[in-house]
Design goal:
The protein is an alpha/beta fold and 416 residues long. 37% of the residues lie in helices and 14% in strands. The structure holds zinc ion.
Length: 416
């Protein structure tokens, strides 16, 4: 395995690999990991994401905690020719908990365990919370999930089944996050939230998405499309691509497309108005009564890793796209029927973006596009309640076989 050092991205201080530091002990700045890219290999004899162990912040392969994450399929899109580009899906739904978050949480929990923490804590009822609970259980660590008032039971039950203690805070999401920060700072709790300043290790695991895309694609695609919630996945993919560029594995960077919900489009607003700092993003005047959206997982007015994501998109010559709920409902069904993939609404934004950008001529007909589908739809079915009309044919046993065949769409088969 390779070697790595940790440096402060703000003051440049070198930070020791142990004990655990969430941020720079000197100035409180964010941490960056540096690897020996001259000797790093992408094919270590380990499963899934761990084949990239040279580019992960582990001190010993014995630290690995695994449920079989990574090595997800890259599937040529059947919809590609119709859309007018060479499109492939990077389908993350085959990860152990059904989403890309497993890449980051596997590394976060492996390190928390290696640092000697007996438990982990997160405030999330989404993919990150589920993944954190699963890996903590796998490592034999305690786990607590903080949820804010009214968290849907459908989201909480799976975490409880993974052994996580569920704590409902009688307050808003902001109250919950504030309490979590206090637990972290006063009680030394190991937080696994998936933004860099909450846990820098998870962010390194998420880079493996970039390594797999490039190796499976046989080089850099022209474009990579990534749904954006907090912006962490996109930032990590960008750092992974820079590793590969420096290693000479690729000779150019793919252009990155970040996709946000239309009403929660901080990065799109930043692009339009030339904003680039955290203070800029925080100052965007979103109304307090934003409409609810199907894209719960992406609906952040302040993306925690938004600054890194924004710069990654800009530096790559990429673009920010947005998707409305209506566009997503159509795209989700199209990916399902057209590709055989039941994805969560927050993944279907990728198709919306590809269509808009090919229609606008931004993506050319000969260009290759890898669109990331971040998670399976199985855990998100409840968000479709009341939003999705399903056609159901109704028959009774007395209607006869002919009517049944017609209802099943079998007329032509029978006639033949
Ligand atoms: Zn510092």
């Amino acid at each position: 395995m390779g070697s790595y050092t940790i440096v402060c991205a703000d003051c440049g201080a070198t930070v020791p690999n142990a004990p655990y530091h969430r941020v720079c002990p000197v100035c409180g700045g964010g941490l960056a990991f540096r690897y020996d890219l001259t000797s790093a290999r992408l094919d270590r004899d380990l499963p899934g994401i761990w084949r990239f162990i040279d580019l992960l912040p582990l001190d010993d392969p014995a630290e690995i905690v695994t449920l079989g994450e990574g090595n997800t399929p890259l599937l040529p899109a059947r919809l590609g020719p119709e859309l007018g580009c060479r499109l492939a899906w990077k389908y993350e739904g085959t990860n152990p908990t059904g989403a890309q978050k497993d890449r980051g949480l596997a590394v976060a929990i492996a390190k928390g365990h290696a640092f000697g923490y007996g438990g982990a804590i997160i405030a999330s009822t989404g993919s990150a919370g589920l993944s954190s609970a699963a890996y903590a259980a796998r490592a034999g660590m305690r786990h607590a999930t903080l949820v804010s008032r009214g968290a849907p039971l459908e989201r909480v039950i799976p975490m409880a089944m993974l052994g996580s203690r569920i704590v409902e805070v009688d307050g808003t999401i902001e109250d919950t996050l504030e309490l979590l920060a206090a637990l972290r700072d006063r009680y030394g709790a190991y937080e696994t939230s998936t933004y860099r300043r909450a846990n820098p290790y998870q962010s390194e695991g998420a880079k493996t998405l970039a390594y797999e895309i490039v190796l499976q694609h046989g080089g850099a695609p022209d474009w990579i499309v990534i749904p954006v919630g907090g912006g962490g996945t996109l930032g990590s993919v960008s750092r992974g691509l820079h590793d590969l560029l420096e290693m000479g594995v690729i000779d150019r960077l793919p252009r990155l497309i970040g996709v946000q919900p239309a009403d929660y489009d901080a990065l799109a607003i930043a692009e339009e108005n030339g904003l680039s700092t955290e203070a800029d993003l925080l100052s965007i005047p979103f109304p307090n009564d934003l409409p609810p959206t199907l894209l719960v997982k992406l609906a952040h007015t302040f993306p925690h890793d938004g600054v890194e994501a924004l710069h990654a998109i800009r530096d790559s010559g990429g673009v920010v796209a947005t998707a409305t709920d209506e566009e997503v409902l159509a795209a989700q069904a199209e990916i399902g029927a057209g590709e055989g993939l039941y994805v969560e609404p927050s993944s279907a934004v990728s198709l919306v973006a590809v269509r808009k950008l090919t229609e606008a001529g931004r993506i050319g007909p000969e260009e290759s596009v890898v669109a990331v589908l971040t998670g399976s739809g199985h855990r998100e079915t409840h968000v479709l309640a009341g939003r999705r009309q399903i056609e159901i044919e109704r028959v009774s046993p007395a209607d006869g076989l002919e009517r049944l065949a017609e209802a099943c769409g079998l007329e032509t088969e029978v006639a033949r």
